[in-house]
């Protein structure tokens, strides 16, 4: 059973719509009891880092989430700000992140580039799959996904970065550490490649 | 490589899809949900949904309609029309919408932009300026109330201010190009894109894929939005929802990439 963490942020309906069309069961979890039923967890997120962390910390789900992810090794995927929350910290805010994958979240910086690109990074960009991963099964060779963000995840250990994209500079767009995945783009709003990733996650 | 975005714009009035000519002479085009389903199937980059009466009639956005459309949309959706408070915007985003567009509200209180950006993140805050170029001099004015009320702002300076307040995207709606299908106002778009560091989307004037190609060739990174082009076909403007195929998109974007 896939649980989509409902802590007040993120397009939870978009995920359930995709899974409904794929005939895959999922629930919204805003209470620990619901979360505990999950065999897989999706952590969505939009907006500012601190606000997202604050909402998650106040949701009553934090303890259960940490336990399921870090102790029981339940597969989890963080999307957009959900992925950024998995870092230790973010340049965007003051609060600590979840610390599930070692790294920091940084703002796009074009000072070493020929030109400054607009921010947020908004639109369809292709990703480079840097390794074979069950999450990537069935994807096109250079699949495109939708992005909407001004900050990106910088891994402390390169081995945790499994796909990259380019916006002025190369940045990690998919990160992984064991059962923990983070995706910067929006698979729930990226047509069929997005649906493929969400399906693959459900089948892990 | 980030691609330019090609975006259908749907205007809604009384729950029906309409198309206008210079913000007037509306023609009923069909059911919005059907249109969204088709744009979905054709893998549109994004979708913009504008309720053109909500502000003028001083009423709440049609939340049920927004929810229904959002549930069909497998690409990012932006909704605009009648949003005057942060609460309304939050409510709309929770219905499954990625971005909200505010327009008339920003003239009285531009602070609403920062209030909104603080709550939901600037990436979800679009400011829409309805603009008209003067006959002489080339200066551009901003209008509200469906193009009837001229605002006392310098549009370029106001756009920069809007960015400072925290908008994540500027949506430029060219009143005199609306429905005319004779090309985008490339000069004006250049001036705005040059002045801002946030993404810009322009709508008004697109009459062919070639018009979109020209805009993207000039700007590289831009949202090329269109209403009539994706809703009408042929000389007699028969209603036919359409969107570039993958192959056509490659030509428009001038790229070999997918």
Secondary structure blueprint with pairings:
The complex is a heterodimer of chains A (204) and B (258).
Chain A: E1 2-5, H1 12-21, E2 26-29, H2 32-36, E3 40-43, H3 49-58, H4 62-71, E4 76-79, H5 81-84, E5 89-90, E6 103-107, E7 121-129, E8 144-149, E9 151-155, E10 161-167, E11 169-177, E12 180-183, H6 191-202
Parallel strand pairs in A: 1-2, 1-3, 3-4, 4-12, 5-6
Antiparallel strand pairs in A: 6-9, 7-8, 7-10, 10-11, 11-12
Chain B: E1 5-13, E2 16-21, E3 24-30, H1 32-41, E4 47-51, H2 63-72, E5 77-80, H3 86-94, E6 99-102, H4 105-108, H5 111-120, E7 125-133, E8 140-144, E9 149-150, H6 155-165, E10 169-174, H7 186-195, E11 200-203, H8 209-219, E12 223-226, E13 232-233, E14 238-239, H9 246-253
Parallel strand pairs in B: 1-4, 1-12, 4-5, 5-6, 6-7, 7-10, 10-11, 11-12
Antiparallel strand pairs in B: 1-2, 2-3, 7-8, 8-9, 13-14
Helix pairs in contact in B: 8-9
Polypeptide structure, described:
The complex is a heterodimer of chains A (204) and B (258). Chain A is α/β, with parallel strands linked by helices. Chain A has helices at residues 12-21, 32-36, 49-58, 62-71, 81-84, 191-202; strands at residues 2-5, 26-29, 40-43, 76-79, 89-90, 103-107, 121-129, 144-149, 151-155, 161-167, 169-177, 180-183. In chain A, the strands form 2 sheets. In chain A, strands 2-1-3-4-12-11-10-7-8 form a 9-stranded mixed sheet. In chain A, strands 5-6-9 form a 3-stranded mixed sheet, with no helix packed on it. In chain A, strand 10 (161-167) and strand 11 form a beta hairpin. The mean pLDDT of chain B is 93. Chain B is built from 9 helices and 14 strands. The radius of gyration of chain B is 17 Å and the shape is globular. Chain A binds chain B through residues 11, 13-14, 17-18, 46-48, 51, 81, 116-126, 140, 142-144, 146-150, 166-167, 186, 189-192, 194-195, and chain B through 1-5, 43, 45-46, 70-71, 73-76, 93, 95-96, 98, 118-124, 168-169, 196-200, 221, 223, 257-258.
């Amino acid at each position: 059973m896939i649980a989509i963490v409902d802590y007040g942020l993120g397009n939870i309906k978009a995920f359930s719509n995709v899974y409904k069309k794929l005939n895959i069961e999922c629930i919204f979890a805003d209470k620990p009891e619901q979360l505990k039923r999950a065999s897989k967890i999706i952590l969505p997120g939009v907006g500012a880092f601190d606000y997202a962390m604050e909402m998650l910390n106040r949701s009553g789900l934090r303890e259960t989430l940490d336990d399921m992810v870090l102790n029981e090794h339940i597969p989890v995927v963080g999307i957009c700000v959900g992925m950024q929350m998995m870092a230790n910290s973010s340049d965007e805010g003051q609060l600590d992140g979840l610390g599930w994958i070692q790294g920091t979240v940084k703002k796009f910086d074009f000072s070493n580039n020929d030109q400054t690109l607009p921010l947020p990074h908004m639109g369809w960009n292709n990703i480079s799959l840097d390794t074979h991963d069950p999450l990537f099964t069935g994807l096109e060779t250079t699949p495109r996904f939708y992005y909407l963000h001004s900050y990106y995840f910088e891994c402390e250990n390169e081995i945790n970065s499994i796909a990259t994209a380019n916006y002025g500079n190369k940045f990690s767009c998919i990160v992984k550490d064991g059962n923990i995945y983070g995706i910067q783009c929006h698979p729930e709003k990226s047509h069929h490649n997005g649906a493929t990733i969400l399906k693959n996650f459900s089948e892990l | 490589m980030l691609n330019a975005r090609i975006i259908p714009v749907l205007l809604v009035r009384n729950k029906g899809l309409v198309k206008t000519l210079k913000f007037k002479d509306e023609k009923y085009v069909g059911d919005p949900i059907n249109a969204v389903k088709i744009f979905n199937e054709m893998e549109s980059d994004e979708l913009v949904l504008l309720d053109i009466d909500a502000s003028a009639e001083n009423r709440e956005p049609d939340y049920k309609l927004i929810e229904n459309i959002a549930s069909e949309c497998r690409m990012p959706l932006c909704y605009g029309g009648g949003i005057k408070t942060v609460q309304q915007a939050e409510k709309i985003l929770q219905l499954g919408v990625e971005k909200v567009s505010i327009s008339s509200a920003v003239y009285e209180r531009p602070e609403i932009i920062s209030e909104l950006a603080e709550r939901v993140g600037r990436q979800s805050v679009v400011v829409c300026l309805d603009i008209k170029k003067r006959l002489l001099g080339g200066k551009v004015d901003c209008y509200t109330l469906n193009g009837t009320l001229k605002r006392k702002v310098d549009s370029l300076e106001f756009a920069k201010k809007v960015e400072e307040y925290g908008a994540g995207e500027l949506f430029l709606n060219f009143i005199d190009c609306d429905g005319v299908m004779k090309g985008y106002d490339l000069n004006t778009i250049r001036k705005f894109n040059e002045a801002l560091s946030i993404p810009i989307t322009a709508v008004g004037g697109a009459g062919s894929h070639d018009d979109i190609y020209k805009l993207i060739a000039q700007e590289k990174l831009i949202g090329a939005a269109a209403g009539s082009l994706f809703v009408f076909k042929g000389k007699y403007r028969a209603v036919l929802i359409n969107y570039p195929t993958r192959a056509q998109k490659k030509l428009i974007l001038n790229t070999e990439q997918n």
